[in-house]
Amino acid sequence: MNEMFMYRRKPHHPTEKPVIHCHKCGEPCKGEVLRVQSRHFHIKCFTCKVCGCDLAQGGFFIKNGEYLCTLDYQRMYGTRCNGCGEFVEGEVVTALGKTYHPNCFACTVLSSKQHSFICRRYSFSVTCSSLFSEAYSHM
């Protein structure tokens, strides 16, 4: 028995677009697709690695190749203000290795924000210039 089978092949057209696969689920992307850097995602697949919330509608961070919502990124990697304990973003003041919101940076003795500051490494505190002058003028 010598049977011959013929298979029909779809002709390859060089103008056909390559199939794009979702980076998260691996399935082909059809319809609306998100492109983040060089990766493609179904909109429903673009979620926070930690909490699973939708990242397509809001801001996100990329850390070690993982996509994180702002809240989870801050919880895991954010810097807290040494004055109020909240996360700091944008403009910050750094003194003696500590980070502050500009409004939280104050004299540790007077709790005043109205003075110019002198930071002394040996006292490990932020002291306004008027107190520093009084305290150390007789040295």
Automatic annotation (TrEMBL):
One of its GO terms (biological process) is lamellipodium assembly. Keywords: LIM domain, Metal-binding, Zinc. GO terms for cellular component: stress fiber. The keyword Nucleotide-binding does not apply. PANTHER family: ACTIN-BINDING LIM PROTEIN, ACTIN-BINDING LIM PROTEIN 1. This is LIM zinc-binding domain-containing protein. Residues 20-79 form the LIM zinc-binding domain. It comes from Meleagris gallopavo. The keyword Metal-binding applies. GO terms for molecular function: actin filament binding; metal ion binding. Coiled coil: none annotated.
